[in-house]
């Protein structure tokens, strides 16, 4: 299983970024996917998740209405569209899935929101 995130960077408050996570090594369409984030000095937190078919999504209260998780099972990719970014969204963002009782993580992509 391999998860590779991309799309992070430096953005001003109020700006937008789109993160991507390319998956390989398993049947992507069979598994829920999640985005987590970890800010310096804080615990990793769940940001959003999406069901295997993409029909169900959930969000942390802190990002509801601003972030959208989606997936393209034909491309084995999950996305996180982040709008109206705030400085408190600054963190390393990780893609995650759980398969046969094992957690898999990507290497993370840094998102920095600053003027």
Bulk shape: globular
Largest beta sheet, briefly? 7 strands, mixed
The H/E string reads EEEEEEEEEEE
Task: Kindly state the number of beta strands.
Answer: 11
Overall residue-averaged pLDDT value: 97
Number of helices: 0
Uncertain stretches of 5 or more adjacent residues: none
Percent helix, as a range, is: under 10%
Portion of residues in beta strands equals: over 45%
| Distance from first to last alpha carbon | 37 Å
CA-based gyration radius: 13 Å
By helix and strand content, what is the structural category? mainly beta
Q: Features of this protein?
A:
single chain, 115 residues, mainly beta, 7-stranded mixed β-sheet, 4-stranded antiparallel β-sheet, 0% helix
Can you characterise this structure?
- It contains no helices and eleven strands.
- The protein is an all-beta fold and 115 residues long.
- The strands form two sheets. Strands 2, 4, 5, 6, 9, 10 and 11 form a seven-stranded mixed sheet that branches. A four-stranded antiparallel sheet has the order 1-3-8-7, with no helix packed on it.
- A hairpin with a 2-residue loop joins strand 9 (91-99) and strand 10.
- The protein is globular and about 40 Å long.
């Amino acid at each position: 299983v391999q998860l590779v995130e991309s799309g992070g960077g430096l953005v001003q408050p109020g700006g937008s970024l789109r993160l991507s996570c390319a998956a390989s090594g398993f049947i992507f369409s069979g598994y829920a996917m999640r985005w987590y984030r970890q800010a310096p000095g804080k615990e990793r937190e769940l940001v959003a998740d999406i069901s295997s078919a993409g029909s169900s999504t959930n969000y942390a209260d802190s990002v509801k209405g601003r972030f959208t998780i989606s997936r393209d099972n034909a491309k084995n990719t999950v996305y996180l569209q982040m709008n109206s970014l705030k400085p408190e969204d600054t963190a390393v963002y990780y893609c995650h899935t759980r398969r046969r009782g094992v957690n898999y993580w990507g290497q993370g992509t840094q998102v920095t929101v600053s003027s």
